[in-house]
Specification:
By secondary structure, this protein is α+β, with helices and mostly antiparallel strands. It has 8 helices and 10 strands.
Length: 266
């Protein structure tokens, strides 16, 4: 098996409301996004049915729509081709299994290597995907290796925080999972890229957030969805000065920041 050096990776998580299994038009839109060149490392697709992964094969629009529309499946999954080191994985749930309620009742994730030339294409595609899924919450983060990125995207409040994060960010990531039932209304903390759903936007004046100067980009995707991007370069996360940018971001988002006083790192 080919061995690769550690690669900076995207960790993308979307919590959303749409049951794709009931909506062929949305399934087709999702599929047309995920076959774009910026997702080329998600090169193999399979069915997640029960506790088994079946029918490993090529990533095509037709196969993806068929998998998502089948009620016997949980989701469509993506990974690296066989006999290669895994550098990319993902899943898009089709709506047969709820993990939460309301605007965040389903979740999906994508993890794959960051290619600097693709940053604009990736962020545009993920914003479009979040809109199609009617996302109620979500984030786009960057981690130094695939395993760390996968752990963040999958979630789980017992996961170990990576070295180098501030204590506040560790608490925020732990709190995001511990209080998953409140994701649609409150934010545990900002990441490099943060999605705000309809209930977040009800409590915020997005123009004041824009005027704060805390974000490189503030994008109103739809009346129900916005995307906030802290810096132009996602690899700024981890460099000197990024944590201070997050202090400013938290201040701009104060009306929807979650109380994390019951969260600890023990």
């Amino acid at each position: 098996m080919e061995r690769l050096h550690p690669r900076t990776s995207w960790a993308i998580r979307l919590d959303f409301a749409v049951a794709l299994v009931d909506d062929e038009e949305r399934c087709t839109r999702v599929a047309n996004i995920l076959v774009r060149p910026c997702f080329r490392e998600l090169e193999r697709m399979s069915i997640h049915r029960g506790d088994r992964w079946l029918e490993h094969g090529p990533v095509t629009v037709e196969r993806m729509v068929r998998i998502l529309r089948d009620r016997s499946n949980k989701d469509v999954t993506f990974d690296t081709k066989r006999n290669r080191e895994i550098v990319a994985t993902g899943e898009i749930r089709n709506g047969t299994y709820e993990t939460n309620e309301g605007a965040t009742r389903f979740n999906s994730h994508l993890v794959f290597p960051l290619v600097p030339a693709d940053v604009g294409e990736v962020t545009a595609a993920i914003c479009e995907l979040a809109d199609v899924l009617d996302a109620g919450a979500g984030f786009v983060a960057v981690e130094p290796t695939y395993p760390v990125a996968q752990e963040l995207a999958l979630g789980g409040f017992d996961s170990k925080p990576r070295p180098g994060l501030s204590r506040q960010r560790m608490l925020e990531r732990r709190g995001r999972d511990r209080h998953q039932g409140r994701r649609q209304e409150l934010l545990s903390g900002p990441e490099w890229g943060t999605f705000l759903g309809a209930q977040h936007l009800e409590k915020l004046d997005l123009e004041l957030v824009r005027a704060s100067g805390a974000f490189e980009r503030v994008v109103r995707i739809s009346p129900r969805l916005a995307f906030l991007q802290v810096t132009a370069d996602p690899e700024a996360d981890g460099r000197d000065g990024f944590e201070q940018l997050l202090v400013d971001a938290r201040a701009a988002l104060a009306p929807i920041m979650m109380d994390l006083s019951d969260v600890n790192l023990e």
